[in-house]
Amino acid sequence: MIVEPKTATSKVLSVSQLCKVYGTTVAVDGISFEVGRNEIVGLLGPNGAGKTTTINMILGVLEPSSGSIRIEGIDIAKQRTQALSRTNFAAVYAPLPGNLTVYQNLRIFGLIYAVKKLSDRIEALLKQFDLEAFRNTKCGVLSSGEQTRVCLAKAMLNQPHLLLLDEPTASLDPATARDIRTKIREFTARDCGGVLWTSHNMYEVEEVCDRVLFLSHGKILLEGNPKTLPAEHGKTSLEELFITIAREPLALERV
Ligand SMILES: Nc1ncnc2c1ncn2[C@@H]1O[C@H](COP(=O)(O)OP(=O)(O)OP(=O)(O)O)[C@@H](O)[C@H]1O
User: Which of 12, 59, 64, 125 has the greatest CB tally within 10 Å of its CB?
Assistant: First the structure.
């Protein structure tokens, strides 16, 4: 009997001793972490800490210098297509082609992902992300908030079990950002997926993430519940803790 990897592990993502080196720059320095089912994990850290490099390795866009990445137990170095078919991604710096309509974009990505019953899936996503009125609008003329909703709809097309979100609410107004957070929360509550979320907005991280990882100079310095972690390290807020780590990572060891 074939055991579906989905049922064989409670982790949607397992990263072990992951490294990425560029010449003399160690962008990611031996990090290990997991993302569980129905869990939202925040990947935090100052500019240049290694967040995007980590995400790009998990997406298979960058090859690790060493270490391993498993998605639902499947090693992406060995069974890349199978592992990545369970993953999707949204980021403000990766907008969809602006000369195609919302519908055309969803259709093309759906074909690339080989989504079954694609027309039905697109209709459901247009409804879920309040995009029905924009189905024939070119993505390039949509507002930032509308484009983010299309990017998220695209990211949900293949019903991913691992969703990577790189600053999904950057440049959104507070009401739209809250709406997006609610939709991501619904995704983790309803389906069997997990989310790796990067953001520089500590208020948002505290509200949405079940667990956070603090990266600094390519290493994980801290890990824990964003609501309790600041007090554990003598800080009053996640933002204060973030600033301490960004400015003076070694100071934490003295707390
Ligand atoms: N292609 C590359 N060649 C050389 N160095 C690189 C390359 N890509 C990233 N780096 C370096 O690796 C480090 C980590 O970069 P990365 O983009 O992962 O950081 P980040 O945490 O995502 O930062 P930000 O919050 O600014 O987006 C940085 O020092 C960066 O300069």
Answer: 12
